[in-house]
Each structure stands twice: as structure tokens, then as C-alpha cells.
User: Fold this.
Amino acid sequence: MAYVKIDLSKTKEPECAAEGEYSLRIVKAVDTETKKKGEPMTVLTIRVEDAGPNVAAFNHYLLYPNGGEYDAMRSLEIKRLLTIFDVPYDGEGFDSQAMVGQEARCLLVQEQGDDGIIRNKMRLPRMKE
Assistant:
């Protein structure tokens, strides 16, 4: 097949959602390792459900406690995320694949990456104890 006939005239890059509160759905959870130190982490792909048809999904990186100085911050972020997405957890941990399909409302902000591209990022709310 030498010539593929396809209309690309309306194809465009996805956009970021404007800052605000949205309904979010976790559509993928990949257990992997950090590039630099090879430490375990989970990469979540999150879709913005109510922001329009051309809004890009975004990734959220769950870094796990590793015995270092950021353990308390990492644990708090994980617990906040599990809480708003209603993912079951206990004193031993949680099933990372149980996050897939879960929905929550959360504030999204825009943040420019080192590559100059603006992406959405969640601002996880404080837990209600």
C-alpha cells in the first residue's frame, strides 16, 4: 500500500485542562522502577472526564518510601491519593491494580515541565481525619 487515504485536516495535539476541579478516572497503573535509582514506583495514567474531548490524559508518579528523608511526604501523598480515589488499603499496604477504574473529584493545576510543555497536575486535598 503506497498511498493511505485519511483526512488529517482536523487532527491536532491534545490540550491541558484549565485549572479547576474535575472528575478524574485512573485508566492505567504500571508498576515500574525509577530511572535513576531503580526504586519501585507506580505510574498512573489519569483521564479528565469532564473537560472536553481534546484534553490530554496525564501521568501521576507514585514514589514509594525507601528509607530516605522523603518517606513521610511520599506516604502522605499515597494515602491522600488512595483516600480520594476510594482505593482500599490497610496497615500492610494496597493493591496498585485496584486503582484502575477508580474516580475522584480533584483540583487540577497547570505546570510547565523542564521540556517547556505545560501539563496538568493534581493538587491532592488534605485528608479529613
